User: What shape does this take?
Amino acid sequence: MHTLARAVPSLAPTAIPFGLENESAYRQWRELKLGSYPARVEELVVEVGDPRALTDAEREAILRRCRNANMAIYAGKVREADKDIPRLLGRQIGLQRLDSNWLADDDGITQLKASGTGERQDYIPYTDRPIKWHTDGYYNPPARRIWAMLLHCVSSAASGGQNALMDHEIAYLLLRDANPDFVRALMAPDAMTIPARANEGRIARPAETGPVFHVDPTTARLHMRYTARTRSIRWKQDALTLAASAFLENLLNSDSPYIVRATLEPGMGIVCNNVLHDRTGFADNATHHRLLYRARYYDRIDDDAAVRIEPAVS
Ligand SMILES: [Fe+2]
Assistant: This one.
């Protein structure tokens, strides 16, 4: 097993910054977070050789970015279509428990590509159409919360397919700075409902009501469920909830410096603690067919009890 250097500023696990009752813990965390937050997308990128077998330095470089920004982009040299890439990379950064969604292959790793036929074409991830802002598995029940997600690019489209990403902790921070009651509203257990999904007349997934922001009671980690697809979500109809969701929507559609954009090239990938993300539409042609592997996990990257922030990436 790898061991991590721990000589970094850290917050005690008991100092939970995400609860509204603890303003001083929030202020302390906020200062560290903004002070060490990467200013440019390039600062999130880690060059690696083989993501299936990271060196200690590569692994630590990925983890450091994930601690500060909940995401890292790796650029690897392996061009093979090998599902061991996401599986083995995930394991090296603490991701073990894969979520098998109903369109994942049996091994829990989903191939995302524009498929012209079959039931998949009814679902936007399996088309070349744009995907609005969301976190993965926003429709999952609490027992299957998606804490981390990995995307690996096997081949890219002829054009398009760019991802925008925003750290969900930054979204929380900006909402709380604007109005702490926005956060209060989005933490309410009935803040939003994901309608049931019917399949051939039967309920394939029941409606799921829950909060947008959830703080894990044992780890103090922040989890976010969100989708900007209006037909996929019903907001609680009160003024604060609606104002908070409008603020979030405006933020995600703004030119916020906290939104990073990246188009994955073959061999590249994103590892993240299920941050907010979207995808532009794309176009394949005779020689370029976009194929990404996606893995979703019930684990967080490098999970430990403390909410830690590290010095800025140099
Ligand atoms: Fe996604």
User: Anything to note?
Assistant: Residues 1-11 have pLDDT under 50 and may be disordered.
